[in-house]
C-alpha cells in the first residue's frame, strides 16, 4: 500500500540533476513535502487548500512575535540612548535583545511565507526562509552562552573591566554571530536531503535528518555548558567568605534558577520533537505533524529574555519608563526634557561594573549580586 501511495506521489519524479541546480526547481518542494508527510497527490492538494488561511495559532504567534520585536527594540533603545549602559554586560544584553528581535521578525516572516505559500517557493527561497529563523534563534541561544562566559570570567578573574574587556566582548559577540550564521547556513551550502529522499526530515522536508540531529546536539551542549558555568559561579560565590551574605547567595541562586528554568522549559519541547524527527518517520510518530506548536513554545524564550536579563536591573526599568514616556506611551506629568536627564545608578549590575573598572582583586570578594 505504501509503495502504491509513493508511486502516486512521485508520478512526476524529480529529475536527478546536480544538487545545486535543483535549488530553482519549483516543483521540488511539493514532491518532497508529499514524501515527508506520506501523502498522495490528491491528499497533498487538499492539504494545500486547507492551509490557505491563517489559523488561530498562527495569529497568536504573530501577536506574540510582534510583542517580542517591540520589547527587544525597547531594550536596544534603552541601551543605546543612555551612556550609563555603555558597559560590557549591557552590550551583551543588547546583543541578546538584537538576536531575539531578529528571531521574532524571522518567525513573523516565516508565518506569512508558510501554509499554501510554501509551495510557491523555490528551494533556495525555502532554505532562506528556514535558515533565517535558525540563525536568529541560534544567535539568541549563543548570546545566552556568551553572557554566561562573560559572567564566569568576570567573577573569577582580576581586573575584569580593564583594557582587555572591549576585545573580549567583541570576540564573544562576533563568535556568536559567525557561529549562528554558519549553523543556519549549512543546509543552503549543501547539507540537505535533495536527491536523497530517505534522509529527509518530516518536520522540515528539505533538511537532512543528520543535520537536524547535529543541531540538537549542538544546542544540548550549549545548555550543558550554561548549566556548568552557572553552577561554577554559584559554587565560587558560596565559597567566598567576604561580603557574600546569605541573602546575596539566595539572590544569585534565584537568578540562575530562573535563567536555566526558562531556557529548559522553552527549548526542551523543541529539542524533543527535533530529536524524534531525526529517528522516526511521520507514520510511526504522528506528533511530528504538530511541530509548529513546539517551535512556538521555543519562541517564548525570546519574549522572556528581556524580562530576565534587564528588568532585574533597576536602572533599566527606569530607562524603560523614560523611553515610553518620551514616546508618549506613558504620561508622567513631567516635562519631556526630563527624559534626557542622566540616571543615578541604583542597579547592582551597573554598580559593580563601575566600581570594579580598575579592580585588582576578584569581583566575587566585593559584590556577588552583579552576577
Give your account of this protein's structure.
With 371 residues, the chain is mostly helical. It is built from 12 helices and no strands. The N terminus and C terminus are likely disordered. The chain has a single domain, classed as Rhodopsin 7-helix transmembrane proteins (Rhopdopsin 7-helix transmembrane proteins, Up-down Bundle). It starts with a helix and ends in a 16-residue tail after the last helix.
Q: Which SSEs are present, and which pair or pack?
A:
Elements: H1 2-9, H2 28-36, H3 41-50, H4 56-81, H5 88-112, H6 123-156, H7 165-189, H8 209-239, H9 246-277, H10 291-309, H11 314-326, H12 348-355
Helix pairs in contact: 4-5, 4-10, 4-11, 5-6, 5-7, 5-10, 6-7, 6-8, 8-9, 9-10
What's the quick description here?
The protein is mainly alpha-helical and 371 residues long.
Features:
single chain; 371 residues; mainly alpha; Rhopdopsin 7-helix transmembrane proteins; globular; disordered N terminus; disordered C terminus; G-protein coupled receptor; glycoprotein; transmembrane helix; membrane
